[in-house]
Amino acid sequence: MGEVKDKRWGYIRKLKPKEIQSTIMIAFSVISIFIMLFLGIVLYFRISALTRQETVQDTQKLMEQTRENLEDYLVSMRQISDAVYYNVIKENDLSGLGNKIQSGMNLIYEANRDNLRSIAIYNNYGSLMEAEPVALQKEDPDVTKQDWYQKAMAKVENMHFSTPHIQNLFDDATQRYYWVISLSRVVELNDHGTSVKGVLLVDMDYSSITRMMKQINAPNNGQYYYLCDNTGKIIYHMQQMQIGNGFFHENNQAVAKYKDGVHSETFEGESREVVVDTVSYTGWKLVGVIPDSTFTHGMFNIRYFIVMLILLMAMMLAVINRVVSERISSPILKLDDSVRGYEAGDKPEIYIGGPQEIRHLGCSIQRSYEQIDQLMREIVLEQNERRKSELDALQSQINPHFLYNALDSITWMIEGERNDDAVFMISELAKLFRISLSKGRTVISVKDELQHAQSYMNIQKIRYKNTFSVRFDVDESIDLYCTVKLILQPLLENAINYGVGSMEDCGEITVSGREENGNVILSVKDNGMGMPEEEVENLLTDHNRVPAHGSGVGLVNVNNRLQILFGKGYGLTVESELDEGTTVSICIPALAFTEENRKLLEKGYSFGGENKLSGRSEIAQDE
Questions:
Q1: What is the Cα–Cα distance from 614 to 77, expressed in whole angstroms?
Q2: Which of 41, 192, 243, 517 is the most buried (most CB within 10 A)?
Q3: What pLDDT, in 10s, does the model give residues 526-544?
């Protein structure tokens, strides 16, 4: 690590011989890491998406198989109901001898007793006509108020499946009661040759459905399945008792409205996928719930594998990056060392070696250094001459046109024997032109510029017969700073012509000056008619604007002269409101007025504005 004094910038700069090599290596490493991380993340999310998709598909297949089993079970129940109705009830009369209906129901019950609990026939008054197995009906139940009975009578053409409930119609000698699902339908009964309506009730054993649902709920990975009807009532759920007691909640009411397929939802703060499949004949919905934790359950090993793969690739790339960066940077570092030595003033031989591109670059740098001193001298000279020409051209536009009016006024005063006023006018005019000429100088002191402004306003007040007043409020501490001459006159002329000139006796112009944050601020304020906002915005940018009257030297001219001499950070700012007046402010650097600084500024040396100067300026030091 070495140090070189940079004479152009004036500070000590530390050199880093391995900076290029480190940069190349770091850049390659960062790019490699980002690519590996990107590929790792993409791979992880791709595998995660495939796992998620596979899990959903497996769930759909399992639910489809379960739904088919349920439908087969329900079809068998329908077939039992059809067999009882068409083969037994329709073929026999309730009043027939031998009780053929009872025997027919017994045969069907015995053939399907594994899936049945009871078969019963009720008339339209709710009275029990036949039942199998033979049992006594309880005295208290009013069948006509049972849900299965009312649904059957409401829609006579349909079969109706109830939700799970305890069979409570018959007395059981064993005092055991079973969970059943009731299948009810309206049937036509023959009673002494007369057709009357009745209800056929087939109670299916709920344990068959329970076994089916327990089989698919066996895996304990957070995923579960439940069964509900089209209104959301639970038919089967693993946590059915907890749901009934309020200890567990399920989104069954909302799921009942879902269409078949896969749905994403958030329930009680948990995101999950819900698969819905409708069971035919009943409108029941088989629902599979897959929490997000189920998808991420098996991803730990995959994440571990991806991390290890990324680390292995990172180590390999670090070695490769080291070798590649060193081969690329070695000739560049040698060339950089020779260039740094040249910049330090030693003028060593520029390194020419390495690949063809580096050799060509070395030759180009060698030739460019041979020309650079001459070119810099020519450019500096050309820029100084151009800036001086621009400043002279702008300065030449200032023509105190009011000289003719002032001379006319003097002539009129002499003819009117107002000799004292004429002498005062001539004296002020002499002061004004003494400063205007300034022996051909462009840069004068702030004090002389203020004297020029006072002389100008003394003449104008006499010409306008003192219809307005002028007040100078200037801090004496700024008198001995540099400024461009004749910058206040155009501002005062505008204040008279466009501000207070047309006012009778209440016009007022205030010239103020102060030092602020290392800058000199001169401002001209009037209480005239003011300007609209859009005109203020264009005042310093519209170079084609032609003044209504006056010298023709506008604010743009003054602003350009200030910026040519002091830089773009300085110049004019305008503030104005209609019927309130206008304030034009000049901002220039607080640069001490010395003969040395004046000469440098007039030669075209630009002041950047970042260094606040006092006494001997840094402009003089740079020379």
A1: 108
A2: 243
A3: 998 888 888 888 888 765 6
Non-local (6+) Cβ contacts of 395 within 8 A are: 442, 486, 561
Pairing of strands 519-526, 179-191: unpaired
Q: Which helix (H) or strand (E) holds 174?
A: none
Q: What is the pTM (predicted TM-score) of this model?
A: 0.45
Task: Look at the block and give the residue holding tokens 């060698």.
Answer: 366
> HEC states along 261-311?
EEEEEEECCEEEEEEEEECCCCCCEEEEEEEHHHHHCCCHHHHHHHHHHHH
DSSP-derived secondary structure letter, 605: P
Beta strands in 40-127 (DSSP E): 116-123
Report the percentage of the chain scoring pLDDT > 90. 14
Instruction: Please choose, from the candidates 540, 539, 511, 508, the residue with its C-alpha nearest in 3D space to the C-alpha of residue 524.
Output: 511
Cβ atoms of 213 and 227 closer than 8 Å: yes
Cα 191 from Cα 196, distance rounded (Å): 7
**Of how many residues is the chain composed?**
623
What's 92's DSSP letter? S
Whole-angstrom CA distances from 309 to 42, 283, 298, 316, 323 are 14, 51, 18, 11, 22
User: Given the DSSP bridges, would you call strands 468-474 and 507-516 parallel, antiparallel or unpaired?
Assistant: parallel
Angle subtended at Cα 508 by Cα 503 and Cα 512, rounded to the nearest 5 degrees: 150
Task: Tell me whether domains 217-296 and 397-622 share a fold.
Answer: no
pLDDT digits (tens, 9 = 90+) for 589-606: 999 999 888 888 877 665
Residues 6+ apart with CB under 8 A from 405: 463
Question: What secondary structure, in 3-state letters, does 196-254 show?
Answer: EEEEEEEEEEHHHHHHHHHHHCCCCCCCEEEEECCCCCEEECCCHHHHHHCCCCCCHHH
Which superfamily, per CATH, for 397-622? Histidine kinase-like ATPase, C-terminal domain (3.30.565.10)
Pick the CATH number of 92-208 from 3.40.50.150, 3.90.350.10, 3.30.1050.10, 3.30.450.20: 3.30.450.20
How many Å apart are CA 481 and CA 519, to the nearest integer?
10
| Strand bridging mode 270-278 / 443-445 | unpaired
Cis link prior to 490 (omega < 30° from 0)? no
Lowest mean pLDDT among 210-214, 254-258, 308-312: 308-312
508 is written with which tokens? 């007022």
State both tokens at 552.
């023709």
Dist CA 105 CA 112 (whole Å): 11
Per CATH, the architecture of 217-296 is what? 2-Layer Sandwich (3.30)
* Both structure tokens of 26: 């770091």
Instruction: Find the helix packing angle between 419-437 and 446-463, rounded to 10°.
Output: 150
Model confidence at 445, pLDDT cuts 50, 70, 90, reads very high
Band of pLDDT at residue 88, cut at 50, 70 and 90: confident
Per-residue pLDDT band at 473 (split at 50, 70, 90): very high
User: Domain coordinates of the chain in residue numbers?
Assistant: 13-69+299-343, 92-208, 217-296, 397-622
Q: Are 255 and 239 in contact (CB under 8 A)?
A: no
Q: How far apart are CA 294 and CA 52, in angstroms?
A: 9
Spatial CA neighbour of 314 closest among 26, 36, 28: 36
Here the tokens at position 258 are 């879902």
Neighbours of 211 (CB within 10 A): 11
